[in-house]
Design goal:
It catalyses: dTTP + alpha-D-glucose 1-phosphate + H(+) = dTDP-alpha-D-glucose + diphosphate. This protein is an alpha/beta fold and 298 residues long. The protein contains 11 helices and 14 strands.
């Protein structure tokens, strides 16, 4: 497949050991666990696709590389260009940027965590604005979300005028309840910044350190996602279950699927009706396959 020319590429971080979901993840990579009716990885990938990004780099564990390749291949069946890099061990989120350097080159990047699920009216419009802003003006753009348990996340602190004054990774005493969600938009400087990050007390290259450097340079923008948005970090048993129940409720109510990558590829004009039919045929006895066949008949 010919290389797609565009200004932004996406990195989807799908490595890590999934210890918070043990013992399930001793058997299968957490990103292939079903969140209701689709593998977890479909949800962040679908956001990337809805943003119109066709060039994707998956960062995966050595033992999971073949599973990812078997499932997604080179991306051509979705009209995309998918590559893979291996993360030998979970050395932190910022390492994903460094590992993907050869694919990113001079491109800006949308960096998404493979266990994060986003939903909400206008979420794509808001993220497209972030994408376009980074493509035109550079810098970094992230999103904050109000949580009850901020000590689990990277936390952002604001002054009374809404300006960001600090970022902290998994603080014992959080300075706010705003967590930075797992989708980040960066200019091409991100890789060089990540390379200079020193391991934290946890021994990891923290993505918060990358964001802090952009903050120091006065190049970080943080937008808060309000009440109309749902965000799940599906890396714990409870949040994983919550995410599945949420997706099930929305899909039953609307009759529309969240995170259906074949549908998005088709509606984006990346694959033809015939290609969608080919993808749907082997699944025709499943609810997922029937849904795709209905789209073909539209």
């Amino acid at each position: 497949m010919s290389q797609v020319k565009q200004t932004m590429k996406a990195i989807v971080l799908a490595g890590g050991s999934g210890t918070r979901l043990y013992p399930v993840t001793q058997v299968v990579n957490k990103h292939f666990l079903p969140v209701y009716n689709k593998p977890m990885i479909y949800y962040p990938l679908s956001i990337v696709m809805l943003l119109g990004i066709r060039d994707v780099i998956f960062v995966v564990n050595p033992q999971d590389l073949e599973s990812f390749k078997n499932h997604f291949g080179d991306g051509s069946k979705l009209g995309m260009n998918i590559n893979y890099v291996v993360q030998q061990k979970p050395n932190g989120l910022a390492e994903g940027l460094i590992l993907a350097e050869d694919y990113i080159k001079d491109h800006s990047v949308c960096y998404v965590l493979g266990d994060n699920i986003f939903f909400g009216h206008d979420i794509i419009k808001i993220m497209k604005q972030a994408k376009e802003e980074i493509e035109k003006e550079g810098g970094a753009y992230v999103f904050g979300y109000y949580v009850k348990d901020p000590e689990r996340f990277g936390v952002v602190e604001f002054d009374e005028n809404g300006n960001v004054i600090s970022l902290e990774e998994k603080p014992k005493h959080p300075k706010s309840n705003y967590a930075v969600v797992g989708i980040y938009f960066y200019d091409k400087e991100a890789v060089n910044i990540a390379k200079k990050v020193k391991p934290s007390h946890r021994g990891e290259l923290e993505i918060t350190s990358v964001n802090e450097e952009y903050l120091k340079r006065k190049r970080l923008k943080v937008k808060l996602l309000g009440r109309g948005f749902a965000w799940f970090d599906a890396g714990t048993h409870d949040s994983f279950l919550e995410a599945g129940e949420f997706v099930a409720t929305i899909e039953r109510k609307t009759g529309l699927m969240i995170g259906c990558i074949e549908e998005i590829a088709y509606r984006n004009g990346w694959i033809t009706k015939e290609q969608l039919l080919e993808l749907a045929k082997p699944l025709k006895k499943t609810e997922y396959g029937k849904y795709l066949l209905e789209i073909v008949r539209e």
